[in-house]
Amino acid sequence: MVGTFLFWLVIRNQDLEEIRSKLVNANWWWALLALMFGFISNVFRALRWNMLIQPLGFNPKLKNTFGAVMVGYLANLAIPRLGEISRSAMLANYEKAPMNKIFGTVVVERIIDVLTIFFLLFIVLLLEYSKMSSMANTYVFQPVGVKLSLLFSQGIIFYLFVTLLFALVLFACWFFITRIKNTRYYLKVKEMMRGFLDGIKTIGNLNNRNLFLLYTVLIWFMYFMMSYVCFFSFQQTSGLGVVAGLAVMVFGGFGWAAPVQGGFGTYHAIVTQSLFVFGIENDDGLAYAILAHATQVFGMLVFGLLSLLLLPILNRKRKEA
What is the domain range of residue 268? Predict the structure, then answer.
């Protein structure tokens, strides 16, 4: 498991007994409060997702949308990005809606989340540029720059090869499509793609854009509160302010977004480094990261498993009808 290996890399040179002692003496009631904020954030996420689905002609029940969101998080703990497919399939099943259209709305949701976290990153850099610019460069801009530099450093032969390969692929696709365009398989795929695009287009057909924006703000405010209240679990981090909480939320979000099961290792490394920038020693920062991460994973496991078990029961009467 990649996440386990990365987590081991993070803790291997740390004083594990000291960190264990800090976790044992931590005030876990603040973690419980963070768990509550996490629950509320997912209620707002379910409400926002419903707004994207309604222009398709469906009005999902909140219990089904919320349950699908939680099952999606549960799936992501096993395989990164599986959650988007899992929650689309689950909601499509219980609401009798086309999965391709539902999946299109999930893609829109993810695009909005990416834009939001980069906007918040800009706010963090604006507020604490001297402290956070190095972090942003190391964990966000530099990885992107490396990928781009690899593309632009291969010379003209590389680009000619890519262009030729792209042209061959286009020709192969054109040749293949002209041969199968009248078959039922082609028509089925075409219909699926059309439904997927319909799902994406719902962002332009919202009934109440201001309410959609409000849900987005509330989702991320709850995420901020999850990070911030956990500061009070430890004496060493209890004095950190709002900006530190915002920075931990943003950079922790990039840790969660890494293609690793449940952000294991990546979240702990980036949050520990974020807190170090604000004067928190590595063992204290790692103790905080473990507590905050464990709280979120616990919520995903509990609410995800409950949703997986309860949704078939709650939808039994509807299915029988």
Answer: 18-143+154-313
